[in-house]
Amino acid sequence: MPRRVRKSVNVLLCLVAVAAIGWSGSEIWQVLRGRQQIDEACAGIVPPGRVLSLSPAGGTISHRVADEGTIELDAALPQDCEIFSTEAGEKHGTHTGERWFFTGAVGALPEKSVVADDPLEDLLDPYRGPTYPAQPLGGGVAGVVTDTGVMVQLPCPKGLSNGFPVTDVWARAELMDPGPQFTENGQLSSDDRQTLAEIAVAGANNLAERVGCADRLPDPPSDIPALTEGPVPAARAQGTCAWYGKAGFSRRRGLPDQVLESRTDDRLWDESCALVLSDSRARALWTAGADHDIIDPGRPGQYFVSLHTYAGEEATTVRLTDTRYDEPMDNAEPGKAGRSSNDPVWWASSVCDGRPQIHTMTAAYGYDRLMTPALEKVFRAYVTDVTERRGCSRVKFPAASTFQTDTP
Q1: What is the reported pLDDT for 291?
Q2: Burial class (CB in 10 A: 0-12, 13-18, 19+), 267
Q3: Residues 104 and 207 sit within 8 Å (Cβ to Cβ)
Q4: Which of 284, 205, 275 lies closest to 244, judged by CA?
Q5: DSSP states of 359-403 as a string?
Q6: Is the separation of the CB atoms in 167 and 110 below 8 Å?
Q7: Which of 136, 188, 251, 256 is the one with CA 20 to 30 A from 182?
Q8: Residues with Cβ < 8 Å from 46, sequence gap 6 or more?
Q9: What are the CA-CA distances from residue 281 to residues 43, 284, 297, 304, 354 (Å)?
Q10: Cα dihedral 17/18/20/25 (nearest 10)
Q11: CA of 22: how far to CAs of 8, 339, 397, in Å?
Q12: Minimal CA–CA distance to 117: which of 248, 259, 275, 257?
């Protein structure tokens, strides 16, 4: 190679090397600044490296600067931290150039009350999009996986938060409305699902250390499956609604013919089974009704029965929704059973491993006026299935008189 050409090549290589060093230095600085922003917002509870590995975490990272949206452990729980990125902003086309893409939240029990499902709840996508019921995390971890994130819980019987005793701690990690830009067929990618589980577990364990919990959660399972789309025909129920399919309830006139269910997991603080009427069955039932001032089932799954079992500390704070809003909500008291004073919501109770459990049933407005008497057997079958599966005792059921159609 001629000397002049060799000199030019050396100069070019030097320029490329300098540019590469500058580029890598810029990248390193951006990562370090992103980690700092996450630590500032989340008080060291959330692992910043895992947040930065989420799909929407590219570009410049920042956090919300406000009274809410940053974690301050000296204040009362629950709290959350909210993280933004320019990549999420660019993909979603926001006018600010950045977008809120991640929330990390932590809290401790006992908290404010848990409220049973509303009779006007939308259990299915009202726009007829896919519905993905939450599923247990599994792997020995008390947790749930949703279509946007993961929540986990850890017993902490001797913990103290801000001077107050706690019984459990929890943590949640989720993507905020990721949309098609950061999902696959309407679901989180397997990498994001796994990462969010790791963040949630780390968050719970970090909080557990701060409040003095003796135990820690194990690592989450490494093969978290995608969620299963619902509803499915009742005859195919295999999880929390399997009892309904086996009993043949769906063959009876007017009872739901589809289910939204999850895999069973006795570790969960809230396990559910939803029974919904297909459009055709709901329409036929409404048409046959003598009283057409009953709510017309125009939305998917508008006629439903929602069943929940709340365990442990959650069971001590359950309240029955009141859609009149101007009336105080009834408490679902452990050791008792009954019905809401105003809405079609019932509760039963039991004790499992020395811990209280509350079982609730909510019937949709309109549907309750057509089918309430038939729902007593459904509720009894549900509670019997859960309590036998969990080895519970001291089961209390609502009185038969509460299942009369003319009950308030």
Answers
A1: 67
A2: middle
A3: no
A4: 275
A5: EEEEE-TTHHHHHGGGHHHHHHHHHHHHHHHHT-EEEE---GGGG
A6: yes
A7: 136
A8: 38, 81, 104, 173, 199, 202, 203, 206
A9: 52, 5, 10, 11, 42
A10: 140
A11: 21, 68, 71
A12: 275
Please count the CA atoms within 13 angstroms of the CA of 265 that sit on its side-chain side: 20
| Predicted local distance difference test score (pLDDT) of residue 405 | 78
- Structure tokens belonging to residue 310: 């709340």
The contacts of residue 201 (CB under 8 Å, 6+ apart) are 141, 143, 152, 171, 217, 218, 219, 220
Half-sphere exposure of 91 (CA within 13 A, CB side): 20
Nearest partner of 104 among 182, 210, 196, 211, judged by Cα:
196
β-strand pairing of 114-115 with 318-320:
parallel
Cis before 180 (ω within 30): no
Using DSSP's 3-state secondary structure scheme, residue 210 falls into: helix
How many CA within 13 A on the CB side of residue 291?
A: 10
| Residue 12 three-state SS | helix
Determine the longest span between alpha carbons in the chain, in angstroms. 103
Note if the bond before 78 is cis, omega within 30 degrees. yes
- Hey, what are 87's tokens? 């990549």
Please state the three-class secondary structure of 112-129 as a single string: CCEECCCCCCCCCCCCCC
Q: Please, which residues have CB within 8 angstroms of residue 253's CB and are 6 or more apart in sequence?
A: none
Which are the contacts of 371, defined by CB distance < 8 A and separation ≥ 6? 254, 255, 285, 363
Residues in the chain with pLDDT < 70?
1-26, 290-292, 324-326, 406-408
Q: What are 387's two structure tokens? A: 């309590």
CA–CA separation, 277 vs 304, rounded Å? 6
The owner of tokens 């397997």 is 190
pLDDT tens by residue, 168-221: 999 999 999 898 889 988 899 999 999 999 999 999 999 999 999 999 999 999
Rounded to whole angstroms, how far apart are CA atoms 359 and 330?
14
> What backbone torsions phi and psi does residue 173 show, to the nearest 5 degrees?
-130, 125
* Residues 304/123, Cβ–Cβ less than 8 Å: yes
**Which residue type, as a one-letter code, is found at position 357?**
Q
Report helix, strand or coil for 340. Answer: coil
Amino acid at 347: W
